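Hey Z.,

So I finally got round to the coenzyme A thing we talked about over coffee. Here's the setup:
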Amino acid sequence: MDIRCFPAKTEDIEVIYTLCKEHIEQYESDPVPMDPVLAWCRRKIETKIGEYEAVFVDGKKAGFVHLSQLPDGNLELYLFADFRGKGVGTALIRRAVSQAKVQRKQLLLYVFRANERALRLYQREGFVIKAKVGNSRYVMEHRCG
Ligand SMILES: CC(C)(COP(=O)(O)OP(=O)(O)OC[C@H]1O[C@@H](n2cnc3c(N)ncnc32)[C@H](O)[C@@H]1OP(=O)(O)O)[C@@H](O)C(=O)NCCC(=O)NCCS
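And the result:
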């Protein structure tokens, strides 16, 4: 499997936003005001699009990865449904861990507690739960140095 990442483009903003929105709608269980949350997500993607990368698997676009630059590395992963469960996420997590080590940064991520498979995957790759955010999410950090 050939996995490559290239800088995301402005025309990717809408697709990334859709993946993010679907994800929040699927897993958010806290009574948060959805419109402002989604507006915040859209603004973040628009202003940080330079930090997002498009992921290609064997030449086909498979999703997006975002490793935010400041202050800690904050990892976000969104793969299209057809590309899940094939080891792509694992490879991208390992790449982010290596990048964070090179940059001597902490690596953090937010995960919904109900996203049990993702939670298990992150634990398997060396992340530990650092804090709870409301009742629906955890902050996880990578603890393998
Ligand atoms: C979570 C995600 C990045 C994992 O990447 P992946 O390539 O599917 O994962 P891999 O194939 O490398 O590893 C397999 C593990 O990933 C997780 N996984 C696999 N398919 C998944 C799916 N459809 N949804 C969520 N997690 C999944 C499981 O933990 C699985 O391990 P298991 O076999 O023990 O259950 C990817 O499935 C995805 O983008 N899901 C939708 C968006 C999302 O949940 N993003 C994470 C935000 S914190």
